[in-house]
Fold this protein.
Amino acid sequence: MKKIYNGIAIVLAIVFVFYVGMAVGGKSSQSLDLGAANRLPHGYWDTADGYYVDGSAVIDGSGELEGVINSEVAASVGAFTQGGGTTATTTVSTATLLASYFDTENVIAITPNVASTVTFPGYTLLTSFIPTIGDTRRIYIYNASTTSPLITLAGGAGMTLSGVATSTFLVGANKMAAIDFVRASSTAIYGLVSTGW
């Protein structure tokens, strides 16, 4: 009987030490120091800047989210404003857009000096733009000219542009085109073009 009481006392002592340690700042498997950060359960940890989520996104003190959140399940969101900047460029006659125009920007503003053909980069240059088969992204092309030069859009290597008619690839002065890009395979990207905005 004495052995049973001794065993119970040892278990209670371990539990007591564990909870006292937690109360005075001890660390469990869910709370570990990571330099200046304090890890919390499920991939969250706090820092001086806010809270990291899965190591990439930050929710700062004002509640704003910075970084990328990847969702592998269906998600539903309310109204929101999508960020993204504008890249501005000028072209004469023909030009090929740079892949760097597509990294974070949503709008590419082009000022043509004359009627111009603008070609998108080939699929090999856009591997980080929509890297996985089935990925999609929308980009807007804005003809920033206030006069009459037209922009004709053309697909690069491994990129096929689609629309109702060839005329949908024309972007008039002070107009926009929306292009929905879809990675169809490891070597092909499709762009559905709509204009008249």
